[in-house]
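re: ur question from yesterday

yeah so i grabbed the chain u mentioned. its 271 aa long if i counted rite. heres the sequnce exactly as i have it in my notes:
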Amino acid sequence: MNLRNVIAYSPPKMDMFVYETEHFNGVGELLEILGSFELADNTKKPGVSVTNIINGFALPLKTEHKQFLVKVLIPLHKVKCLALYHAQLTYCIVQFLEKDATLTEPVFKGLLKIWPKTCSQKEVMFLGEIEEILDVIEPTQFNKIQEPLFRQISRCVSSPHFQVAERALYFWNNEYIMSLIEENNQVIMPIMFPALYRISKEHWNQTIVALVYNVLKTFMEMNSKLFDELTASYKAERQKEKKREKERDELWKRLGELEISSKSKEKCHKK
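ran it thru and got these structure tokens back, copy pasting raw so excuse formatting
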């Protein structure tokens, strides 16, 4: 059977795998075929020209190719056994984006929508995939997804699970991602700063604290004026929070005293 026919036949099976059974042998192998090479005459003779299946899609991409990405490949991230085929899945996603950069926004929207909330292992995998995607992203496309993306990264940095926080902070070791952050520091710094500053004072893991200090130092070098403004704003907001907490505690204390006083009066009346 021609490999393209195999691919055409497979999406319904994958839908069943994602939404119904979660049992479908060969998902990893099928994704590997998608991202690997197809022999032109379906043979393995030396010298036969080969064409990458996804890269071989004609531009502009057909609707069914885009739907395959959004309705099949993205939902495959939901499955519990993601680790079994995540490397192949990531490779396919990256190839789609290298083929058509305009798919960047729907891919990020899809991944952020199904971001794992309770499985730290999957969260680390998602972060690794995001970094691979960012390595091939165009600056114009990055501008469209930077705000929701870094709100999620801020939540990951704040994770009590140190491996999730550590993996998110490793983004700042990537030169290309750093260049994107620097170009857009006025957008990204205000999103990231509150979480980073709080963690630098409160996190239980010293490795995370050290990584956070490095990120804060990088931000200060990028834009010292904005860094100072964010520091002052954060401290002022913290003072307001402390004042609100103090007022709330005093209110509860007064309510407690009133309740005790009321009970005492009731006892006196009964006598």
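noticed a couple things. Residues 1-99 form one domain. also Residues 37-51 have pLDDT under 50 and may be disordered.
anyway ttyl
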